[in-house]
Description:
Chains A, B: The active site is at 154 (proton acceptor). Chains A, B: GO terms for molecular function: spermidine synthase activity. Chains A, B: One of its GO terms (biological process) is spermidine biosynthetic process. Chains A, B: Pfam families: Spermine_synt_N (PF17284), Spermine_synth (PF01564). Two copies of one chain form a homodimer. The first copy, chain A, is built from nine helices and 13 strands. By secondary structure, the first copy, chain A, is an alpha/beta fold. Chain A folds into two domains: 4-61, Spermidine Synthase, Chain: A, domain 2 (Roll); 65-278, Vaccinia Virus protein VP39 (Rossmann fold), CATH 3.40.50. In chain A, the strands form two sheets. In chain A, strands 9-8-7-10-11-13-12 form a seven-stranded mixed sheet, sandwiched between helices. In chain A, strands 1-2-3-4-5-6 form a six-stranded antiparallel sheet, with no helix packed on it. In chain A, a hairpin with a 2-residue loop joins strand 5 and strand 6. In chain A, helix 1 packs across helix 2 and helix 5 (168-177) crosses helix 6. Chains A and B meet through strand 3, helix 8 and helix 9 of A and strand 3, helix 8 and helix 9 of B.
Amino acid sequence: MDSLNNGWFSELQADLWPGQSFSLKVKEVIHKEKSRFQDIQIVETETYGRCLILDGIIQCTARDEFSYQEMISFLPLCAHPNPKKVLIVGGGDGGVAREVECIRWKSTTVSSSCPSNISRRWPVFANEKLKLTIGDGFDYMKKHKNEFDVIITDSSDPIGPAVSLFQESYYELMKHALKEDGIVCSQGGSFWLDLDYIKKTMSGCKEHFAKVAYAVTSVPSYPCGHIGFVMGSLNKNQDFATPKLGKSEIDAIDLRYYSSEVHSAAFALPRWVQKHFYE
Amino acid sequence: MDSLNNGWFSELQADLWPGQSFSLKVKEVIHKEKSRFQDIQIVETETYGRCLILDGIIQCTARDEFSYQEMISFLPLCAHPNPKKVLIVGGGDGGVAREVECIRWKSTTVSSSCPSNISRRWPVFANEKLKLTIGDGFDYMKKHKNEFDVIITDSSDPIGPAVSLFQESYYELMKHALKEDGIVCSQGGSFWLDLDYIKKTMSGCKEHFAKVAYAVTSVPSYPCGHIGFVMGSLNKNQDFATPKLGKSEIDAIDLRYYSSEVHSAAFALPRWVQKHFYE
């Protein structure tokens, strides 16, 4: 199988998910370029709508992106008692900014190291409460101390440029950019694919955060059909699984995937995963 | 893409999941035959272990089958106050019988219409509490009235021989084979693929059962990486999401996937699915 063969795009990654591959039927290749950082493809698929592919890995499709975007945004936002200032690292497709915007937090700052020619096309970036920075997330955080309530890291997988976002030093940096009781939430991979890598990321987080958890959501176009999030809180009494925002307030936001029940259920892990992470 | 091409098996079903395909790298084709009912393949895969494929659709792989088998078995068994006699329709791979056996219910009856030359190889079928019948599940149930506490339907997808197991008439038949307060649990498809078909199955169930619910579990080798279960109870006060068996009793069974928390979380559906099914 090739990555684009007879009208199908196949996601082949022998290092990250050996022996398995997800394929989407492609109607049209919309855009193809090699940037300084990544190989970029945008394709129109037959049944998943438009799809962004970076370095041969599906980043999001129109059909199922709301599951990932809502969950990586609302899990930390609703676990924090009063999130006023939010930093999004990565998130160049604009989906997380759209979700954070939709509950109208007083101020939102986005730092993105993603190619600006894609991300600027999203209308969410025109919101004046949002500050878009094209640059290095590490450098940005070094210059902003004790400033954010929530930091969301919407990164690609831990291969190539994104590796550093899964390491202990990154959690240390986020801690210093956070206010008291701040919460972080990062794309954290699949428990079916690499339990030990997730545990290592959680251990790195635990070095700097009082409470650490892993939650999961269903996304058909991601490897193994789901994706997890590593969360850390500076509040030692943090209860991640119980949203701080009331059920009726959450319902009023009118989301497609996220609800109070979905929030709590996301932390219920299969018994063998639960034991591996927490015992 | 062909179904077996350059050492990869690809699951192509233009009717059931158009425009998408999951592939597994195959080390060796162990068995291949065309029975009176189905096309049967058993392959050894590179990273998912041994895999059973019927009519080009993955039925189970050694790596992730425990999620499906434990959930389709323990969701109904633990939702029932005292399950003594269990009927498994389908389940020819023996996985469900293995799970039902592992909590040592007083009596278990299996009716299977699957090819006997595969299913008989599993040691669980030697258990004397288990009665194996090779035949038609419909005929079997017609002859057994008010007999079972739980009926588990471990079927293939609603295409070909399994279509009838998703219809209202099947729920009617199950109701008559059940004792008072009996519970049924059937393979019910993915909410990402066909919300309306699941809703139709649930409506068929609702014609004969006082309470109906849909739950879900993560299975990477199934389309969209998960699978759902349609459950019905003759008890009008049934609370599906709260297991009747205590947390410590469930923990003592020592399962890999299922736990009290996983049981409850399985019923928390994405907001748009919840609204579609229950509002």
